[in-house]
Amino acid sequence: MAHTNRDIRLVVLDMAGTTVADGGLVEEAFAAAARHLGADPDGMIDHVRATMGESKISVFRHLFGEETKAQEANKAFEAAYAELVDDGRVEALPGAREAIEELNSHGRTVVLTTGFARPTQDAILAALGWQDLVPLTLCPADAGGRGRPYPDMVLTAFLRTAAADDVRQVAVVGDTSYDMLSGVRAGAGVVAGVLTGAHGAEALRAAGAGQVLDGVGQLPGALG
């Protein structure tokens, strides 16, 4: 049976760069973490940009190799990012909340996912007043520890919400290549990129985006 966009029951939405304005905060927090370990962030920033969307601890494992160093860098990153959140530097992208509410009103279940650890995710949700906006939010640890580009968070959303009967009734939406890959690997019926974050249309399409939207505000209309 052919599935159409109208069949979408579950929408798995990324946070930073997709529904939440990043404003370079990830890079700022990363630079603070690198300096904390006595490393030069300039030599590492290209890797950080290329792997946006991946779980942060795996980025640090790649950069620092040694597990204790990676864990220390991750803690420093979380602390720096939390400070930026406390300073009021985090805001919702235009139309994001309205899009989520519209999807909800159409009977679709929305799940918010992130590559950040749970304390950072919770701090962002609290800063935006989004704690009760969706029924489920997921970070890599909630899905067994593997973040994007693995499909685990998408499949965890599918299993935990029981909102869809078939993975083809799932839409995965994000601003990075890794978001797209996680959607493709999960077998999602819709894999859509948005141009409000890390990667451009070409990179998103190359990683499997079936459609590219200017922003998440266009999503309810795109799903129909």
CATH topology name of the largest domain, in short, is: Rossmann fold
Mean pLDDT: 92
Overall CATH class of the largest domain: Alpha Beta
Tally of extended strands? 8
Helical residues, percent: 40-55%
How does CATH name the architecture of the largest domain?
3-Layer(aba) Sandwich
Query: How would you describe the shape?
Result: globular
Number of helices: 10
Low-confidence sequence ranges: none
- Strand portion, in percent? 5-15%
Order of helices and strands: EEHHHHEHEHEHEHEHEH
The overall number of domains is: 2
Cα-atom Rg, whole angstroms?
A: 17 Å
Distance, first to last CA:
19 Å
InterPro entries: HAD-like_hydrolase_sf, HAD-like_sf, HAD_sf, PGP-like_dom2, PhnX-like
Protein name: Phosphonatase-like hydrolase
Question: What does this molecule look like?
Answer:
The chain is of the alpha/beta class. The protein has two domains: 151 residues, HAD superfamily/HAD-like (Rossmann fold, 3-Layer(aba) Sandwich); 62 residues. Helix content is 44%, strand content 13%. A six-stranded parallel β-sheet has the order 5-4-1-6-7-8. A two-stranded antiparallel ribbon has the order 2-3. Strand 4, helix 6 and strand 5 form a beta-alpha-beta unit. The two termini are 19 Å apart.
Note the topology:
Elements: E1 10-14, E2 20-21, H1 25-36, H2 45-50, H3 56-64, H4 67-86, E3 91-92, H5 96-105, E4 109-113, H6 118-128, E5 136-138, H7 152-161, E6 170-174, H8 177-186, E7 190-194, H9 201-206, E8 211-213, H10 219-223
Parallel strand pairs: 1-4, 1-6, 4-5, 6-7, 7-8
Antiparallel strand pairs: 2-3
InterPro entries: HAD-like_hydrolase_sf, HAD-like_sf, HAD_sf, PGP-like_dom2, PhnX-like
Protein name: Phosphonatase-like hydrolase
Pfam families: Hydrolase (PF00702)
